[in-house]
Amino acid sequence: MIALDRLSKAFGDLVAVDNVSLSVARGEVLGFLGPNGAGKSTTMKMIAGFLEPSSGNAMVSGFDVVASPVDVKKRIGYLPEGAPTYGDMTPRRFLDFIAQVRGFDGAERSRRVDEVVEKVILGEVMSQPIETLSKGFKRRVGLAQSMLHDPEVLILDEPTDGLDPNQKHHVRGLIQDMAHDKAIIVSTHILEEVEAVCSRAVIIAHGKILADGTPDELIARARNHNAVVVGVTSSGADKAAKTAVAVDGVETVETLSSTNGIDRLRILPKAGAAIVLSVGDAMKAADVDIREIFVEKGALDDVFRDVTMGGDGGQKGGENEHA
Amino acid sequence: MRNTRIIASRELMSYFATPVAYVFIVIFLAFTGALAFYMGGFFNSGRADLVPFFFYHTWLYLLLIPAISMRLWAEERKTGTIELLMTLPVSTTEAVLGKFLAAWLFSGVALALTFPMWITVNYLGDPDNGVIFASYIGSFVMAGAYLAIGSCISALTKNQVIAFIVAAAVCFIFTMSGLELVLNFFRLWAPDLLVDTVSSMSFLTHFRAITKGVIDIRDFIFFGSLIAVFLFANVVAVDAKKGA
User: Cα–Cα distance between A252 and A300 in angstroms, integer?
Assistant: First the structure.
């Protein structure tokens, strides 16, 4: 549904988006991750037809964004960053205007507006000027505008920015409900959001794609993915550490904390190998007094930091690096 | 055309959603009346015509039209709604036309509300209503030309104050270019052809010709083509500056 081919955008000397190639199929929710200024919004603006690419091209539902912008815009729902709306209009007037521009008339128009208003729960503020609404409602008006025509492609630039946790949950639910028959790109820097709604995550920094995979695949890149943390009595800590290092597949052991006579050791595997069973067996064989044991999954935050700060994760790069 | 109409009606609605429209209309009516009576010597001229009334339109427009046009695009760029507007399935030309037509229609409403002047002059005497009608049309077309200039300049900045001042300055140049003051400056060094060109660009010259009853279709064509040129520049400006 969305296909970007070596898409680039330069503002003067500044290269905001650098040779980005990417495709998103129906049913996919792609999470666009990256630090501020990474080129997320610029890429989305190009897909939505607001900015023209400096080179490369972008296709949406088979239409080129430069050659047939209106055909592309008809098929896209776009929520720009900050969800701009006409503040002096009421949500009813505003959505009615959007529905008109989207080509709906008469009964169909009011049906569409009513439907989307119900979805994003705007009913109670329909006749107040948008500029008087809270940030959460403003964002929902913007969201309503983008989904009103039930587009096959949705581009949402930070859809949950500024919402409270309940509203975030609600918006994520909306995105998931729509996911099955649309291609959706969501940009965010809230990493939990990616795990919650996205079927695929792309990390972008300095205009380049640094990582591309399912959230689970990305998490698997975390240094402590599949690491085992064991709590042992302080007296047995040395023995436990020695035993652990000797286990096949263990890279290294580090001490995390020492409280109330319990030492916590983190046993890091080589290349994310599953070591919990063999570590457990070895400990038992060595008669180490284990008080607790659990496996760490790794955090997307760490992967994100690694990849975007050019640390370990960045070098491992992976199959989709476009350096 | 459908999109142009939808955008124009949204735009018009937003004039009346804020006090802008009412303030503008009241001030426009107060000034057109006051200037005609006190400065133009409407009663003292001893003639039943609206020449003193139309005489000041050029100057009023010079000040008031940039006040309408300044927000057309600068505000959209400032608030970011331009990103919303330009990612809806409308072309830039449709958006530019829609906004321009809304502003023009609005200035037309303000102008139409001066109709008591027309009634008064008919009550007092026996004016040439054909000339008055042509003058109204001329005034409307001139307002359109000022608006097109202002709209184009508004697309070049995010700042409404800058849009106002620059538009007023450019409009001033177009208004004044027929006056001896300006022409003498050009005569000092410029060839006759350039002096004639500058002089032919004058709103004052073209508009006064119309109000004096010399109805030449070329005066209307002048304003019409000026509108077309500036709206075209407006489209180019919106496309070039929207992302900045």
Answer: 22
Write the pLDDT tens digit of every residue in B168-193. Answer: 999 988 888 877 777 788 888 888 88
Q: Which amino acid appears at position A258 of this protein? A: S
Domain boundaries defined on chain B: 2-243
Instruction: Fill in the DSSP letter of residue A235.
Output: G
Judging contacts by C-beta atoms under 8 Å, the chain B residues touching residue A82 are 80
Contact criterion met (CB below 8 Å) for A217 and A233: no
Residues whose CB is less than 8 angstroms from the CB of residue A154 and which lie 6 or more positions away in sequence, other chains included: A76, A77, A78, A79, A146, A147, A175, A178, A182, A183, A184, A185
- Between CA A80 and CA B155 the distance in angstroms is 20
Q: Do A86 and B81 touch (CB under 8 A)?
A: yes
Rounded to an integer, what distance in angstroms lies between the CA atom of residue A165 and that of residue A205? Answer: 27
pLDDT digits (tens, 9 = 90+) for A210-240: 888 888 888 888 888 888 888 888 888 888 8
Single pTM value for the model: 0.85
Q: Does A84 touch chain B (CB under 8 A)?
A: yes
The complex's ipTM? Answer: 0.87
Three-state DSSP at A149 gives: coil
Q: Does A92 touch chain B (CB under 8 A)?
A: no
B53 residue type, one letter: F
